[in-house]
Amino acid sequence: MKWWKYSGIYLLITGILHCAVSFVSFGHTYIQIFNDGFINSIQKDITKGLALWFLICGIFLLLFGSTLHYYIKKEQKPAPSFLGYYMLLFAMIGCLIIPVSGFWLFIPQAIIIIGANKNKQPKQ
To answer: pTM here?
Structure first.
C-alpha cells in the first residue's frame, strides 16, 4: 500500500479532529464571542484568543490537507520531501513545548512523506 497517496487525507483528518476538539473544549467561548457581537469581541481576553487560534489552526489544516490531496491526485507523486522535513521539525518543536498535545500526530505523517521520497527512483 502506498501510504503517501493519503498524505492529504491524513492532514484533513487531523484538521477535522482539531476543529472537533476546539468545539468541544471552547464551545461555550464561541457562543460568548457571538453573544458579544462577534466583531471586536475578543480584545484582551486570553481564553477567547486561544479559542480563536485553536479553531483557525484546525481550519488551516483542512485547507493544507485539501491542497496536498489535490496536488498528490494531480501529479500522481508524493509531496516534496522538504514538506516532510518541515512537518517533522514542526512536530518535534511542538512536542517539546507542549508534550501532552496532538503535535505527535504530525510525526507519522512527516515520516510517510519523507519515506516516500527516499523510495523514489531518479528519472534517467
So the answer is: 0.84
Q: Where are the domains of the chain?
A: 3-118
DSSP per position, the chain: --GGGGHHHHHHHHHHHHHHHHHHHHHHHHHHHHHTTSTT--TT-HHHHHHHHHHHHHHHHHHHHHHHHHHHHHH-SPPPHHHHHHHHHHHHHHHHH-SSSSGGGHHHHHHHHHHHHHSPPPP-
Per-residue pLDDT tens digits of the chain, which is 124 residues long: 788 999 999 999 999 999 999 999 999 999 999 998 888 888 888 999 999 999 999 999 999 999 999 999 999 999 999 999 999 999 999 999 999 988 999 999 999 999 998 866 555 5
